[in-house]
UniProtKB/TrEMBL annotation:
SMART domains: Y1_Tnp. InterPro entries: RAYT_transposase, Transposase_17, Transposase_17_sf. This is Transposase. GO terms for biological process: DNA transposition. GO terms for molecular function: sequence-specific DNA binding; transposase activity. It comes from the Bacteria. Residues 19-128 form the Transposase IS200-like domain. Pfam families: Y1_Tnp.
Length: 183
């Protein structure tokens, strides 16, 4: 008899669709939520892996590396499925980083619908470290990556030091609620 919640991964995989050209919001977590990804060596591994993973067929738009998870926003190319992109990314980060931790099996993925705003998702992941109180609003987060800063209008509203205005925290709550409902 089961003693706790049982993973329903197989049911989730049944509905997985990899649509080339679609924009995906993906989250991958470390096993047991180990707080290791923002350690200098591991952060460097994540950054170089992002550059490699998204240098050919897939297009990375934004990413946020948190201590125990990574958010990615990207357009899927034609060669790999979403699951293969996630697997390739995880394997490469592990090869390049210290081996004292592992990834959680699978991850979260969401294909953006035509009615959803890619910019809202980018804003959501940009604000993630501030929402989690990892840094004060007056400090730029080193785990944020955006390939094309002109892609999202909200980035033009950053202060010269790369930090968001304090009022964005209130706006972020409405964006976060909208994204949580759609995912």
């Amino acid at each position: 008899m089961p003693t706790g919640p049982q993973r329903q991964t197989a049911r989730l995989l049944l509905g997985r669709v990899s649509a080339p050209g679609a924009v995906y919001f993906v989250t991958m977590c470390t096993s047991k939520r180990a707080q290791v990804l923002t350690l200098a060596h591991n952060l460097s591994s994540v950054r170089s892996t992002l550059a490699d993973t998204f240098s050919h067929d897939n297009s990375l738009h934004a990413a946020c590396v948190m201590p125990d998870h990574v958010h990615l926003l990207f357009t899927l190319g034609k060669r790999l499925t979403v699951g293969q992109v996630m697997g390739k990314f995880k394997a490469s980060v592990r090869r390049r980083s210290d081996k004292l931790w592992t990834w959680q099996r699978n991850g979260f993925e969401h294909r953006l619908r035509e009615t959803e705003s890619e910019a809202d998702y980018a804003f959501y992941i940009f604000m993630n470290p501030y929402r989690a109180h990892l840094v004060p609003i007056t400090t730029a987060w080193s785990g944020w990556l955006c390939e094309d800063p002109l892609r999202y209008r909200f980035l033009a509203g950053l202060k010269p030091d790369g930090t968001p205005p304090p009022e964005w925290l209130n706006y972020d709550k409405s964006i976060a609620a909208k994204i949580d409902r759609s995912s």
